[in-house]
Each structure stands twice: as C-alpha cells, then as structure tokens.
Design brief:
The structure is a homodimer of 384-residue chains. Chain A has a single domain, classed as 3-Layer(aba) Sandwich (Rossmann fold). Chain A has 13 helices and twelve strands. In chain A, the strands form three sheets. The first copy, chain A, has a seven-stranded parallel beta sheet with strand order 3-2-1-4-5-8-11, with helices on both faces. A three-stranded mixed beta sheet of chain A has the order 9-10-12. The radius of gyration of chain A is 20 Å and the shape is globular.
Chain lengths: 384, 384
C-alpha cells in the first residue's frame, strides 16, 4: 500500500514510517520540523539525541536497505500539500502533523491562535487536496481521547443513540475538551465529519490515549531512535515521570492525581495504526476508534513508575504538586474500546514491561535530561 | 452602559449602534470593512447605496447629535484588539465582526481557511483581551441557529439533560453544522464555553435565525441606511427573494424548499440584542439564547414574499431550482425559544408587515439590483 505520513519526523511519525515500511508498505512523508522548533522555543530538547531528518533517512537506508520519500514543507500551505498529495497518490494518509501540546496552546493568545490555526489549516488543506486528487484514499487522522473530556457518562466511540423528549436520534457524542489544543482537535473532528458528508472522504478518526515508551524493534541503532520529550510542555505523564526518576527529581502528579486517562505503549500505538490502515473503512465511511490499552489514574502511574525505577537504584519519590490545569481531579472515566479489538488488536506490552525498557534506556541520556531539568516543573497555568 | 460593537459597519452592527445610542448607551465599535471587500470580491454590492463609515458617522452626528467612537482595524490582530478594549473598558462587547456567509466559505480551500481563521482568531483575540483588561464584562456573541443543523430531536437552548446507559448528565447539545462557515461558528461556541470555564468570562451566546428587512426607526435619512445584500453569497432567503421580486427575477427556493429555519425581522433582532445587553448574565455565567421569531419553510417564505410583491405590481413568480447545497430538504425543525420571551421579548413585526416595508423601499434601488443581477443565481456548489 502507498502510505503518506504527515508529521514523519515526530515521536510517532518516525517509528511508524519504519514500522510500515518493514511490513512491505511504500511510505512517504511530510514534516516542517515544527516540533523541533517549538521544543527549542520553550527551552528544552529531546532526551534522546535525535538525528536530523536527513541523517535519519540515510541511517535507515543503511540499516534496512529501505527508502523513505520525504517532503520538507508546511501543511498550512495549501499549494504545497496539494502538490505533494497529487504527486504521491497515496492509498492512505496518516495525519500526525500537528502541534500536540495542551500547555503550549495555553501560554498566551499567540500560542493559542498558532496551535488552533496551524492544526486546523493543515487538516483543511489535506481534506481539500484529497477531494481534488485522491477522493477514494483513506484518511487516518490522529485525534485524542482528550476530546471527550470527563463526562459523567460512559464514553462511546464517537457517536451515541439517545432518546430526548420521547424522540430518538444517533448523534455525535458531545465533546468537552480541556485546552485550546484539545479544542482544535475537536474542531478538526467536526470539520472531518463534514468533509466525509459532502465529499464522501473515507476516514478513521483515532481518539488516542497518551502514548509512552521510546523503543520499537526498528530502532536497531541510536541513529534511528525517536524523540522523547520530558518538559512540562511536550512531555506527557509516564514519559515525564520516567525522566524525573532518572535524574533524581520527584515524580510530580498534578493536584490530587485522580485524573484518569487511557494509555498505550509506543509499539502498540504502531500496531493500532497498522490495523486501521490495513482494514480501511468502507467507501465513504467515517468511523471513530478509541485507541488505548488500559486506563490509569496519574497517581497510579506515578506509583508504578516509582516501583520500576527503584529496581534500577533510582529513588522515585512522589510529590503531588499544585495542579497548573483546570480539570476534574477525581471523576468517572469509562470509555468504550471495542472497534480495534474487533479488528484484532491485542496489546503486546504491559505498562510494567514498557517501563523496564524505557527507564534503563533513558538512563543512557541522563546528562541530557539533567541539562534541561528546569523545563520539567510546570509554569504555564490554565487560569492565568 | 458602555457598549463596544465588533463589526460596527455591518448589516446588523450599524443599525444596532444607532439603536443602542438612542437608548442612552455609550457606543464604540470596530470594523475593518471586510464585508464591503468580500461583497466586491464576489462581484456584487449592497442594494442600498450605503455611505462610507466616515460619512455614516458624520451623518448620524448631524441627524441625532450623537457621537459614535469608531476604530478601524482588524480583529485578527491581537495587539490592536487588546489596545481598543483596554482603552474603551466596555461593560458589554457585542461581537458581530465575522464573515457571515456559508457559500463564501465553500468557494475553495482558501475561502474555507480564511473564513474559519478570520472568525476564530478574531474571537480568540477578544476573549484574551477581555480576560486581561475587562474580566467582568459581558460578551454578547453572535452565533447562528445553523450551528444545530436539523437533528431528529427538539433543539434545546444550548444544553440538554440526557440519560445514557442508565446514567444522567447535562451536556452541550451536539451540533451538526452544514458549511465551513457554520462549523467555525460551532468551533467558537466551544472556545467560548472553555473561556467561560477557565476565566469566568460572562457570556450570552446568541443562536440567531435568519434576519430580514432593511429599516429601523433610526434610519431617518438614506445616509443612515444599512447594507442589503441580495447575491447568492451574502444574500439570505427573504432578502434575496425581495430583491428578485423587485427586478422581475423568479424567486428561487433551493431544491424541494422544505428547508425550515427560524427568521427574525431586523428591528426585532435589535430588540433581542438589547434585552440581552440590559439583562446581562450573572457573573461567570454562560448562557445560550435561541433568537428568532417564527420558523418557516423556504417555500412558505417564497409564497409569502410573492403575495406581498404582487400588491406592488410585481410578478413574484416562484421557481424551485436545483439545490447547490447538501442539506435535508424535508425535515423536522422544533427549536426551543424561551429565554428571550422570559426576559420580555415580544416580536413587533410580522413577516408580512416587514415585507410591506422592505419591498417598496427596495423598489427605490431597483437599478442597483438590476446592475448586479448576475450575482443572484447560485454557482457555488457544496459537493464540488
């Protein structure tokens, strides 16, 4: 299959490019290095010393014999997106090419606008180019479980059937996102449903949980490793806890730590994307996959991380700090997750197994985390 | 009360500025003339020969003795919005300053992006400036009944209580908008709910029906008249039918003509806004008003317009043409409308009364409509 990956240079995009290539797919991709720039902007870097995209492509060619086709450019430029999609004629487009940070979007008005506009315009440009050149191609779009928020109801996969004042209808489940970034993801979900309605674009809208870990079988040497963010802006819960443990920093759940979310190991994220790609929707179908393995509270994660860290001689002290976000710290969380298992998804890595890979690997990069230690503690506040 | 009107030069903004001033409020406003430019871009103009904003302000001063404070500038520039709001310190901001056209947003990728970005960024900039300088000010934001779409359920005012799998919650009613423009309105509704949640911004989110008519008591001479669009892009159902009747063009409902929407006379729109302004929400409250008078099908509107047109010697022939839009042409439509009547809203103008004002007034401008007759029939198609 010809697959085009938007955001090829990212945390997920880079390992997915290699993973899909080894499964025999022909992979191309786009990136404009926004992630590298924004992490630099906020004063941090990847714990792993990632190579430039050019070096990565060469290293992968050398290690595997495989070629990846790469286009450097900005998804928010419609003519560029149009040209690249027209040229590649992919069977599937995997859209991971967005700014993925809630705190980044909460810095100020300019970061709010940049996150919403960059992400939405890039997505719109892909939709219009698909309509024009590859109307039957499958769009696999990365959304987030955070789109749903934490309602006092079970969370279905995208839609629910309800009765209201004696009448029934099947409607999109109301989203209650918790940051300007999460809002943009919801806006894109709505835009995508509309593109599906008017043009019949086939799509899988993936509501992914928080991904953790830094290793996949394709990373046979360090030139092929993916990025690993640990700062307050781009580092997510488990990954940040691992980095904290490695440099002797307290593990810092925010607030009471009862916030519960779905989580997924990096290599199982690859598995899920691959299942969706190789089992595409029907022509003109729009489907929503909730994509995670297990749900955990933040306190639970901190405790599990701490326990594994101690096996490696690390202290792993836990310190619940003031929550910079405005969010429920104790709440119900019962999301459905049936569509992917129905297609064969079986998690291969337990949280503990993944932690046993991540923590020792990360200890090799202790100095890099130490050098940007200041970027870990939260300074961006939701109510400011 | 100090009131700031975003979009002061527009169809609603201009008459509302005069209306509120005569009620004793101190009115300022912003506009960057986007509406004039976009109507020119698509090859049309206002049926009424409106004056420049500078001439309008002078004419209003001369006619009433009242001053309006005007800032020319772009709401999508955050520093400008910040400065103007800081300087004015309004008690209420009425946000009408957006591109208001579904067809315009459907022209191509650039018009889609421009509509969504212009409208969302302007709205974000207002929210951030309010948080910074006037956190207790009331934001009266213009949304549209079109945000809801046409579900097979009653349409509540913003929220509904539902039971799902045995559990209850009060949730935002799911929106199913029908154009890139309507989608942007929904995105802003979500952004506004979030600003209310994190910063306590008090807001009235107005889901307004289609406004028609061209006259308010403040338009004592033609220098004070508001714009009146009749082209396929900016002209809405009743107004376009009136213009068609005046130049002997068939009245053209789209498709089967069973599309049903809420409608409101221009002067009753002024009344509704005033009620919301003078009965502000509680501190930190976010409320949704469905704002219309009666619901009509498009066929019904065409027949009513035709009947009144015939009284003025016009033919008023009706011709149901192919629908350029993708929308249900026969559907249930039962929206609630209780919040405004609870605060005292009483419609003053029936549809027929308003038609008896609009059609003869418009006959004075027959030549201007004739000159842009080519702009009336739809060329922008939803599925293209």
């Amino acid at each position: 299959m010809k697959i085009m990956i938007m955001g090829m240079d990212g945390y997920l995009g880079w390992p997915l490019s290699m993973y899909l290539t080894e499964r025999g797919h022909e992979v191309s991709g786009i990136d404009n290095m926004t992630r590298r720039k924004t992490v630099t902007e906020i004063g941090s870097w990847s714990a792993t010393p990632i190579k430039s995209i050019e070096e990565r492509l060469a290293a992968y060619k050398k290690a595997s014999g495989n070629d990846l086709t790469f286009y450097k450019g900005d998804l928010s430029e419609s003519s560029f997106v149009d040209l690249a999609i027209r040229k590649e004629q992919p069977d599937c487009i995997v859209h991971l090419g967005e700014i993925p940070s809630a705190p980044y979007s909460m810095i100020d008005v300019n970061h709010c606008n940049f996150t919403q506009m960059n992400n939405m315009v890039g997505h719109n440009n892909i939709l219009f180019a698909m309509k024009e050149h590859v109307p039957n191609t499958h769009l696999l779009k990365l959304g987030t479980m955070g789109e749903y928020g934490t309602p006092n109801l079970d969370i279905p996969e995208g839609f629910f059937e309800i009765e209201y004042r004696g009448r029934k209808d099947k409607l999109p489940f109301p989203r209650q996102p918790g940051s300007w970034y999460h809002l943009a993801k919801v806006h894109e979900t709505w835009n995508l449903m509309f593109a599906n309605k008017i043009w019949g674009i086939s799509a899988t809208d993936v509501m992914q949980g928080v991904v953790h870990g830094l290793n996949t079988p394709q990373m046979v040497n360090d030139d092929l490793i993916t990025r690993f963010d640990f700062d307050e802006v781009f580092g997510t819960a488990i990954n940040r806890f691992c980095a904290q443990a490695v440099v002797g920093h307290e593990l810092t759940p925010y607030g009471k730590g009862g916030q519960t979310r779905g989580y997924l190991a990096l290599r199982d994220s690859m598995q899920c994307f691959t299942i969706a790609i190789e089992n595409p929707p029907k022509e003109g179908e729009y489907r929503v996959f909730n994509q995670f393995d297990e749900t955990y509270s933040v306190n639970d994660l901190a405790e599990r991380t701490s326990k594994v860290a101690q096996e490696y001689g690390l202290e792993g002290k836990i310190w619940n700090i003031e929550n910079p976000r405005l969010e429920a710290e104790e709440h119900r969380y019962e999301p459905d997750m049936k569509h992917l298992p129905d297609l064969g998804f079986k998690p291969t890595m337990s949280l503990e197994e993944e932690l046993h890979i991540t923590i020792p690997k990360l200890m090799e990069y202790k100095d890099r985390i130490e050098a940007k230690r200041e970027s870990i503690m939260p300074k961006i506040k939701w109510t400011n």
